[in-house]
Amino acid sequence: MEKFTSKTTGVLKHISTVVVTLKKFNFQPEYNKDFKKALSFLNKYLETDEVQTVLFCSIFTAYFDYLERPFTLMQISDYYECNPLNVLQYKDKMQELLEKGLIEETDAPDGMNGKPFYKIPNYVTDAILAGDKISTVSGKNVKSIQTFIRQTERLGDRRVDSSERIDTLFRAIENLERSHKDVKAIEQLKKIIPRIEDRVILYDTTAGMINHMNSEVDLMVLINRVTDEGPARMQLAESIMNETNILFKNELMQFENKSTMMESTISLTDKSLHLLLGDEGKFYEKKLGEKQLKSHEKIQQKELFYMEENEKEISKLFASLKQDNFVKLQTRLEERKMPVGICVMFYGEPGTGKTETVYQLAKSTNRNIFHVDIGSVRSQWYGETEQKMKKIFSDYKKLCESAKKNNDNMPILLFNEADALFGKRREISGPGEGSRTDNTIQNILLEEMETLPGILIATTNLEENFDKAFERRFLFKVKFKSPNASVKAKIWKSNLAWLTEEQAQTLAKNYSFTGGEILNIVRKTTMDEILTGNLPSFKEVLDYCKNEKIKSGAEPIGFERKI
């Protein structure tokens, strides 16, 4: 008796011995020494009983004799030239082989009828050829989405190498899906994406991302792998570029780079990753970088001064966004079936403290800021701007979910200098896509603001262009005006503590500066102090004030008064 180990040898020899004996005696073998030895070895190797072993060896050999074409129990009787009843009586044993993962049930080949048809799974063949113990990779251990994706990729590679028609790949992957019917993710996906043609696209993209750790997949490489040459290839390319494909409609796939068809790349969405991989999906998510997400801990605390008419409303906003109050507010709004998101608009002249107020609000309420780069959202490619806008809200909602799960404070979604986004919508009168895209973006904004889970703050300088449709979406609308003399004096004194009260009042009364312009002058005085080692004189501060405004000809336009 050969010694059985986890790394076996001579498996094919023993299978051949069993099948040759069966064939010689038309499936009614004499139990000679060689047959008994082979059967005993294979019983241990396959972890099967004698009947299961005989059936498996028969299917394994016939499958490859028939060029890997699926077949029925009746065809096994033809193979042995025996009475069909001799084989059909073991139908229950075939079911046991299926449950062990040693064979798979599959569709009938083209032009053939009758069910069930059977085939040998690739992982079983691979293990036998390598001399590995099948039980280490079969049964429950192989019925996972990870092994499924690896096997779909191998099938795709083989299809490309052999130039087989794409229908061959579709049938093979449908068979693979059936053998993984207990994998929850696959069954869920089949309900969402009914066509195998679309599921194969998703599987192949997944393989590129999780098997090769690619963050994105070349669109044309993918299309060539999952289609034959001809109209179907162009139809698929068009549906993806227009984002009308079901994978985009169900938010399972997204563009990473959308340009020409030859240069575009795509990836799985977080929704898709979680659907397929469950909790493991988080390991493949793209993390928001420091450029987008600013920690409240890195914001420098500053004292801000407001006009009297703004002070009360801003104080109320600061108090509302303190965590305890914010939770109570959202709970009450939810009970009344009202939108729970808090949307805020800061509008007014440049340099009046809109953006800095957002930062100080984040600092005082321990909230990070998810800063939207408006410029990076807009794209020359049809559909990409809208997709990027949707992804912003998708990413923000994910941050809110994570914060809620970890008992952290929800971050602030900041649209800074958002004039173009919240401006008046345009009439569409021509064939151009510019106005259409702007209006689509605004429709996305309006819809997302209704279901916002957290806090959105937008700042804008051009309130006269503000679209009225957005007004009711903003709970707080705060207009920032240029500070009066009293507020300006406080700003001067706060930033240049060495000024006397009289000097601060003089600067406030004689120069019509915004807070931002005052800070420009403060920065210049700081530079002088570093270079000379001395505080600048009041006269030097006055000189900086005279040159702060851009002059037209010889006359200053800085609202300067004679001192």
Label this structure with key terms.
single chain, 563 residues, alpha/beta, Arc Repressor Mutant, subunit A, Rossmann fold, six-stranded mixed β-sheet, 8% strand, elongated, disordered N terminus, disordered C terminus
Quick synopsis:
The protein is of the alpha/beta class and 563 residues long. The protein has 26 helices and eleven strands.
Description:
- By secondary structure, the chain is an alpha/beta fold.
- It has four domains: 11-141, Arc Repressor Mutant, subunit A (Orthogonal Bundle), CATH 1.10.10; 184-284; 293-480, 3-Layer(aba) Sandwich (Rossmann fold); 485-548.
- Helices cover 53% and strands 8% of the residues.
- It has 26 helices and eleven strands.
- The protein has helices at 11-24, 33-46, 50-65, 73-80, 84-88, 91-100, 122-130, 145-162, 166-179, 184-192, 196-211, 219-226, 231-241, 246-249, 270-277, 308-320, 323-335, 354-365, 374-377, 384-405, 419-422, 434-450, 485-495, 501-510, 515-532, 538-548; strands spanning 104-106, 117-119, 217-218, 253-257, 265-268, 293-294, 342-348, 369-372, 412-415, 455-460, 476-480.
- A six-stranded mixed sheet has the order 6-8-9-10-7-11. A three-stranded antiparallel sheet has the order 3-5-4. The protein has a two-stranded antiparallel ribbon with strand order 1-2.
- A hairpin with a 7-residue loop joins strand 4 and strand 5 (265-268).
- The longest helix has 22 residues, at 384-405.
- It is elongated and about 120 Å long.
- The N and C termini lie far apart (112 Å).
- The model is unreliable at 1-6, 136-142 and 552-563 (pLDDT under 50).
